[in-house]
Specification:
- The complex is a heterodimer of chains A (400) and B (334).
- Helices cover 26% and strands 26% of the residues of chain A.
- Chain A contains nine helices and 20 strands.
- In chain A, strands 9, 12, 15, 17, 18, 19 and 20 form a seven-stranded mixed β-sheet that branches. A five-stranded mixed β-sheet of chain A has the order 7-2-4-5-16.
- The longest helix of chain A is centred in the middle third of the chain and has 18 residues.
- Chain B has two domains: 187 residues, Rossmann fold (3-Layer(aba) Sandwich), CATH 3.40.50.970; 128 residues, Rossmann fold (3-Layer(aba) Sandwich).
- Chain B is built from 13 helices and 15 strands.
- With 334 residues, chain B is α/β, with parallel strands linked by helices.
- Helix content of chain B is 37%, strand content 22%.
- The longest helix of chain B has 15 residues.
- Classes of the chains: A alpha+beta (400), B alpha/beta (334).
- Chains A and B meet through helix 2 of A and helix 13 of B.
Chain lengths: 400, 334
């Protein structure tokens, strides 16, 4: 028996309001499925589950505010064949990439409820979406794609009211999901105050010549359709990820138990929200993505920040943060670390500067990269090496 | 004659007294009407329905019969063929199995086999159901078996008003009518209009309006279903309760109309689930309301055992309000 708990979506979160159940008792869920929506200072967040399980019972009513860690639902864990006890719950969020071996097919391993109430669908048939006859008829009449509708009926089935809501859609989902900017500002304030209070920051900067990188980018984009073009930010994110591979002291979490480096590199990518406000949701495993994949993730993330449909894991598990000011930004930024992370990298606006190359002065595209890091874990020497690595990587853009 | 007391336009009465009043009224208004069955005369009926009628109407019209259901039900059918309007009482539906041949092979068929020349206007009243610790041979619910047979009308008055009104409608029907009186209803008390309105023999009745789920039942399960609807209301679930009243012919239109609104149905039937009347209702909904449904049709039936004697086991075997509430929760996905 497992539990699905109110997640901590950042150091500044103490409680959240459960606003919607997207899975109901009897539903079989897979690791990564979105189970509920939680209202936080960062807006409505889609909360994922970290194990394969069957939702057994909902423990918290919609509209209730509960502290982080409160069980929201009880789970029946999908165990190994013939096992008597539940299988261990989710691996730690910083664990190495899982799924080396695929899970056995669910139908063979599900521990069925002892007494299934009449009319309750049998578990283990998660692949086919259930929709009631009425839902199917109304979907046909009103041209609604059933696979896009989230069910609220028995066992998570799509029922008529779900389709009517989807068809009506007078108020799109995103409209009601915009973050409360005042609350977000309070949350940023609380997290940053804590950071300044607890984390002994040190700051370093390095000017990096981006002429080669921008030239490479120009030629790479020449062959791409406008929608597929890469941004400079993709190169810098990728370079940060590769640089961090060899410098684990900047990637991980500092908690009461001390510093724990993370093998995976989830870069919290700062995205400004129109009207004020800021979030830095994670792009996962940046060191394992191609530039095109990374561009796709970045585009998706920015779109979802604007739409207010972020997922819990994106907020809960960045291992480091990168803030890029972009072409119209200031020359340099000096970041404040987002606890429990231990480093934040900042990129100022790239600009043409007179630069000495060999013995001549040339116009070059120059950007100031900065690092704010946690003195409890590293010192300026290590930070300098990280920035030097970053510089070196950005001089070989074709290798990124 | 009766224990009724007058109260303005209404009379305080019981289901048992309402049946007796209806029989008395029939005896008074039509000379062709007579009553026969086991212990209906001197003993006053094993559920005391016919108490006092022998003294008032005499042994010609209130006839105690030998313990032979085949014989006295057959005699009733013969009397009906001969122009009389007999009311035959069978002590319980379990015992009526001895008269199945008469009812199914004669009463139900003669009009058809005679090309319409002979009618069988017999009324057969039977007690049915469990709840009084009368054990397996006196407690079963076999209404669905009779509802299977064309040529019969099968009704199940669940309210005092229907108990009072259905008998005269049944006697007015030119064909055989079977009236099922649930043993747990006899003591139910309530009010009746002093001058009862005429009542239709067929057609279902909406006993409580609601919009979240339809609970469909008949006979002795109606009070339990209404109690379940009360309990659901306290959780904010609005349940519509339909009393089928007449099992043959079945009023499909009323249940389809309701379920098309609520999109969910639970059927409550004291019969066993397997092959029960609830299965017929569920099939009708699947045939005629499939595209309106938002959940599988639920059923609350008796457990698949001969009805036990000990009280706790008997109660556990029967549909109860709590079981109905759980079935409604399942249908609503809660």
């Amino acid at each position: 028996m497992g539990e699905f708990v109110m997640p901590s979506l950042g150091a500044d979160m103490e409680a959240g309001i459960l606003v919607e159940w997207l899975k109901l008792p009897g539903a079989t869920v897979k690791r990564g499925d979105i189970v509920a929506v939680v209202e936080t200072d960062k807006g409505a967040i889609e909360v994922e589950i970290f194990e394969d399980a069957i939702i057994e019972r909902l423990l918290v009513d919609v509209g209730t505010k509960v502290p982080v860690g409160t069980p929201l639902a009880s789970l029946r864990t999908i165990g190994q064949t013939g096992s008597v006890g539940p299988v261990a719950a989710a691996p730690p969020r910083t664990a190495a990439k899982e799924q080396a071996t695929p899970l056995p097919p669910p139908s063979a391993t599900i521990m069925r409820p002892a007494a299934r109430p009449p009319g309750m669908p049998a578990a283990g048939d998660a692949t086919r979406q259930r929709a009631s006859p009425a839902a199917r008829r109304i979907a046909l009449e009103r041209g609604v794609d059933l696979s896009s509708v989230i069910g609220s009926g028995p066992g998570g089935a799509v029922i008529s009211i779900d389709v009517e809501k989807a068809a009506g859609a007078a108020k799109p989902r995103t409209a009601e999901r915009g973050p409360d900017l005042a609350a977000m500002r309070r949350a940023i304030g609380a997290a940053m105050a804590r950071s300044k209070r607890e984390i002994p920051h040190y700051y370093l900067s390095r000017t990096i010549d981006l002429t080669k990188a921008t030239a490479w980018l120009e030629s790479a984009n020449a062959a791409r359709a406008p929608a597929d073009r890469l941004l400079l930010q993709v190169l810098t994110l990728r370079a940060v990820a590769l640089a961090l591979r060899g410098r684990p002291g900047f990637n991980g979490f500092h908690t009461a138990a001390g510093f724990q480096p993370s093998e995976r590199i989830h870069i919290g990518t700062a995205v400004a929200i129109r009207g004020g406000g800021l979030v830095a949701p994670a792009i996962h495993d940046v060191d394992r993505l191609t530039l095109d994949e990374l561009m796709g993730r970045l585009r998706d993330l920015v779109a979802r920040v604007r739409a207010g449909t972020l997922r819990s894991s994106e907020l809960a598990d960045p291992t480091v943060t990168v803030s890029s000011l972009g072409e119209r930004g200031a020359d340099a930024l000096f970041g404040i670390i987002y606890p429990p992370q231990v480093a934040i990298l900042g990129f100022g606006a790239p600009a043409l500067r007179p630069w000495i190359v060999g013995s001549a002065i040339e116009p070059r595209t120059i950007m100031t990269a900065s690092l704010a890091a946690d003195h409890r874990v590293t010192d300026g020497h290590a930070g300098s090496l990280l920035l030097a690595d970053l510089d070196r990587l950005l001089q070989q853009p074709a290798q990124l | 004659m009766t224990a009724e007391t007058r109260d303005g336009g209404f009379t305080e009465t019981t289901y048992r007294e309402a049946v007796r009043t209806a029989i008395r009224e029939a005896l008074l208004s039509d000379d062709r009407v007579f009553l026969m069955g086991e212990d209906v005369g001197r003993y006053g009926g094993c559920y005391a329905v016919t108490k006092g009628l022998l003294a008032e109407f005499g042994p010609e019209r209130i006839r105690d019969t030998p313990l032979s259901e085949g014989a006295f039900v057959g005699a009733g059918i013969g009397a009906a063929l001969g122009g009389m309007r007999p009311i035959v009482e069978v002590m319980t539906v379990n015992f009526s199995l001895l008269a199945l041949d008469q009812i199914v092979n004669n009463a139900a068929t003669i009009r058809h086999m005679s090309g319409g020349q002979f009618a069988v206007p017999v009324v057969i009243r039977m007690a049915t159901g469990a709840g009084r610790q009368l054990a397996a041979q006196h407690s079963h619910t076999l209404e669905g078996w009779y509802a299977h047979v064309p040529g019969l009308k099968v009704v199940a008055p669940a309210t005092i008003e229907d108990a009072r009104g259905m008998l005269s409608a049944a006697l007015a029907d030119p064909n055989p009518v079977i009236i099922f009186e649930h043993v747990m209803l006899y003591a139910v008390a309530g009010k009746l209009p002093a001058v009862p309105a005429p009542i239709s023999l067929t057609g279902a009745a909406v006993r409580r309006e609601g919009h979240d789920i339809t609970l469909i039942t008949y006979g002795g399960s109606l009070p339990k279903t209404l109690a379940a609807a009360d309990s659901l209301a306290s959780e904010g679930i609005s349940a519509e309760v339909i009393d089928l009243r007449c099992l043959r012919p079945l009023d499909t239109a009323t249940i389809v109309r309701s379920v098309s609104r609520t999109r969910r149905a639970v059927i409550i039937d004291e019969g066993w689930r397997t092959g029960s009347f609830s299965a017929e209702v569920a099939a009708r909904l699947a045939e005629d309301a499939f595209w309106e449904l938002d959940a599988p049709i639920g059923r609350v039936c008796s457990e698949e055992v001969p009805i036990p004697y000990p009280r706790h086991l008997e109660e556990a075997a029967l549909p109860q309000a709590a079981k109905i509430v759980s079935a409604a929760h399942v249908a609503l996905g809660r």
